[in-house]
Write a structure and sequence with these properties.
Number of strands: 34
CATH architecture of one domain: Sandwich
Structural class: mainly beta
CATH topology of one domain: Jelly Rolls
C-alpha cells in the first residue's frame, strides 16, 4: 500500500496538468480501459509513462495463511477465496473415549482397541464440537464399534454401529456436528474409498447409500439410483445379512437373483408360526405352461447311489425324500385330503383307509403274491373282494360282470389256468394246512373240480374176488367194481356237513336192480352181481357244505 501512495504523490508532483491549476478545475475522466498513458516519475528524470493495467498488476496483494489454510494473490476488484481445508491429522486410540477429538478438526481417528467396545464422543453442538465440526472415525479391528454420543444423537439415532474392518481395509465413517437433523445430531456422510459406505439421510426418514461396493447398515429402507448394479459383499463364514426389524425388506430382491454359494436360513427357536420361505403368485395366462415355483435342475455328472434331490427331516430323521432316480421315500402314511389314506405301517403291506373310517390291508407275503388282509395271525379277518354294485334306489338296474382273466399265451402256447384253491382241515397240529385246488378253469375251457385225495372203497366193492379201483375226488369220480360185486361203499375223503346231492350212473349195460343211497360220509351202491362194472358219480354240496 505504501508503494501505491508514493506512486500517486509522484504523479501529482510531475504532471504538467497540475502546474497551471488544481485538480478541482479538471474535467472528470471516462472509465479507464487499462491502456491509457499516465505520466510518472520512476526513480530519476526524465519522466516516463505507465498504464492502469500495469498499476493494477503492481498493486496485487499476496495473502499468506497459516494453520493449514491456503492463500494466494488477491487483486483489487476481485473476490478472493481462501481455502480453510485442513490437512488430515491421523490419530490412533485404544481408549473408548474420544473426548480429545474436538481439538483436531478434520482428523482421522483409528479405533485400535481389539474388542467390541462402545467409543463415546461429546454431543454435537457442545464445547469444541460446534456446528460444522467434523472428523473421520475408522475401525481396523475385527469387532464392530458402537459409537455413542454423550448427548444428542448420531445419524438421528442414539448410537451408530461401525462395522468391523481390517488394517488393510478399515471400516470408516465421517461425522459432522449439526449437519442433518439439528444442532444436537452428528450427521453421517460417506468416506470415498472406504470399505463402508456411510448411510445418508433419506426422504422417507430412512437411510440410503451414495456409492456401491461397500458394507452398509440400514436404519429402515435402502434406495439406490442409477443404472449401475449394487453389490452387497458379506464377509465371514457363514456370511449373513441382518435387517434391524422383522418388517424391513430388501427391495433389491424383487429382481432375479443368482446364488452361487450355499444359503442357510437359521430360524433358531421360534414360538410363533414363521415361514422361512413363502412363495406367492398368480398364474393368469391359459396359454402358458407355468413351471414349478420351486424349481431344481441338477446335472448328475457323478454321485453316490444314495444321493437325494430333496430331503425333509424332523429332528435329524428323514420324513420325506426324493432320490436321484426319482424314487419317493416317505413316512408310514400317505394322507389324501378328504379322500382317505394309505399307510405303510403293516409288515410287508399297506393299510388302505377311506375318509369314513373303513380300512383294508393289502400285504405281500411272498414274491408275486398279493394277500388281502393283514399279515397272518391267530385271528385272521375275513375279506371280501367285489365289484361295485347298483346303488339302492335305482329301479330294475342290472349289475355288472366281474371278469377274472388268466394269463394270455401266444401262438401254440397255452394260456394260464384260473385256479380256486383252499386248505382242507388236516390232523391235529399247529402247522398251516396245505392248499388244495378246488376248481380249475383250464385253458381248454374245461372245468376241473377238486384235486384232493380220492374217496376210499369198501371191501364189498371186490366181493367175489379181484380188485376194485377208484379215480377222482369227493366231487366226482369213476369206480371200477371187482368180480361179482353186489354192493360197493364209496367213503368220502372229507365228510360233507350234510348229505350232498349226488348222481350215480353206470357205463354200458346197467345191471339188474341198481340202487344207491347218500349220506354225508359215503355213497352206498347195490346191484346184481356182475364183474367189472364202471360206475360214475357226481356230487354237489348243499348250502352250508
Amino acid at each position: 500500500m505504501k508503494h501505491i501512495l508514493a506512486l500517486i504523490a509522484s504523479l501529482g508532483l510531475l504532471s504538467p496538468a497540475y502546474a497551471d491549476g488544481t485538480i478541482d478545475t479538471l474535467s472528470a475522466g471516462a472509465a479507464l480501459g487499462g491502456t491509457e498513458q499516465i505520466p510518472m516519475f520512476q526513480t530519476a528524470n526524465p519522466a516516463v509513462t505507465t498504464t492502469p493495467n500495469a498499476i493494477k498488476t503492481f498493486a496485487g496483494t499476496t495473502i499468506t495463511t497459516s494453520g493449514g489454510a491456503s492463500g494466494g494473490t488477491c487483486n483489487p476488484g476481485t473476490t478472493c477465496a481462501i481455502s480453510t481445508q485442513l490437512p488430515p491429522v491421523t490419530l490412533t486410540t485404544a481408549s473408548p473415549a474420544l473426548s480429545a477429538a474436538g481439538s483436531n478438526l478434520g482428523a482421522v481417528i483409528y479405533l485400535t482397541n481389539a474388542s467390541a467396545d462402545a467409543p463415546t464422543i461429546p454431543g454435537a453442538g457442545t464445547a469444541n464440537y460446534p456446528a460444522g465440526w467434523y472428523t473421520t472415525i475408522c475401525n481396523p479391528a475385527a469387532f464392530a464399534k458402537t459409537i455413542t454420543p454423550g448427548a444428542g444423537t448420531i445419524g438421528n439415532a442414539a448410537t451408530y454401529s461401525l462395522a468391523a474392518g481390517t488394517n488393510a481395509a478399515p471400516s470408516c465413517i465421517r461425522i459432522q456436528s449439526g449437519s442433518n437433523n439439528g444442532t444436537s445430531d452428528y450427521g453421517l456422510s460417506e468416506v470415498p474409498g472406504s470399505t463402508i459406505a456411510t448411510p445418508v439421510s433419506g426422504a422417507n426418514g430412512g437411510t440410503g447409500v451414495a456409492n456401491t461396493g461397500s458394507t452398509i447398515t440400514l436404519g429402515a429402507s435402502l434406495t439406490t439410483t442409477g443404472a449401475g448394479a449394487v453389490t452387497l459383499a458379506f464377509p465371514g463364514s457363514p456370511a449373513t445379512f441382518t435387517l434391524p426389524a422383522g418388517t424391513d425388506t430388501l427391495a433389491g430382491l424383487g429382481t432375479t437373483q443368482s446364488f452361487t454359494a450355499p444359503q442357510t436360513f437359521a430360524l433358531g427357536t421360534i414360538t410363533t408360526n414363521v415361514k422361512a420361505i413363502n412363495i406367492t403368485g398368480t398364474w393368469n395366462n391359459a396359454g402358458t405352461t407355468f413351471d414349478a415355483p420351486l424349481f431344481m435342475n441338477i446335472t448328475n455328472t457323478a454321485s453316490a447311489a444314495s444321493s437325494l434331490l430333496q430331503d425333509l427331516q424332523i429332528g435329524g430323521t428323514t420324513e420325506f425324500s426324493v432320490d436321484k432316480g426319482g424314487n419317493v421315500n416317505m413316512g408310514p402314511t400317505i394322507q389324501f385330503i378328504g379322500r382317505g389314506s394309505i399307510a405303510g405301517g403293516e409288515v410287508n403291506g399297506f393299510l388302505f383307509s377311506s375318509n369314513i373310517g373303513n380300512g383294508a390291508f393289502l400285504t405281500i407275503p411272498a414274491a408275486n403274491t398279493f394277500q388281502f388282509g393283514a399279515a397272518d395271525s391267530s385271528s385272521p379277518t375275513a375279506q371280501v373282494f367285489e365289484t361295485s354294485n347298483v346303488v339302492t334306489g335305482a329301479s330294475n338296474t342290472p349289475g355288472v360282470n366281474w371278469t377274472i382273466r388268466g394269463s394270455q399265451g401266444t401262438g401254440t402256447g397255452a394260456g394260464g389256468n384260473i385256479i380256486l384253491s383252499n386248505a382242507p382241515a388236516g390232523t391235529t397240529g399247529t402247522s398251516q394246512n396245505a392248499e388244495v385246488q378246488n376248481i380249475v378253469l383250464d385253458q381248454q375251457l374245461h372245468v376241473r373240480v377238486g384235486a384232493g385225495t380220492a374217496p376210499s372203497l369198501g371191501a364189498s366193492c371186490a366181493q367175489g374176488g379181484g380188485s376194485a379201483t377208484i379215480i377222482g375226488t369227493d366231487q366226482a369220480g369213476l369206480v371200477t367194481a371187482g368180480t361179482l360185486a353186489t354192493s360197493c361203499t364209496v367213503t368220502f375223503n372229507i365228510a360233507y356237513t350234510s348229505a350232498p346231492f349226488c348222481v350215480v350212473t353206470w357205463q354200458g349195460t346197467v345191471p339188474a336192480t341198481p340202487t344207491y343211497s347218500v349220506t354225508n360220509t359215503a355213497i352206498t351202491i347195490t346191484q346184481a352181481g356182475t364183474t367189472g362194472d364202471k360206475i360214475n358219480y357226481i356230487c354237489m354240496a348243499q348250502n352250508g357244505g
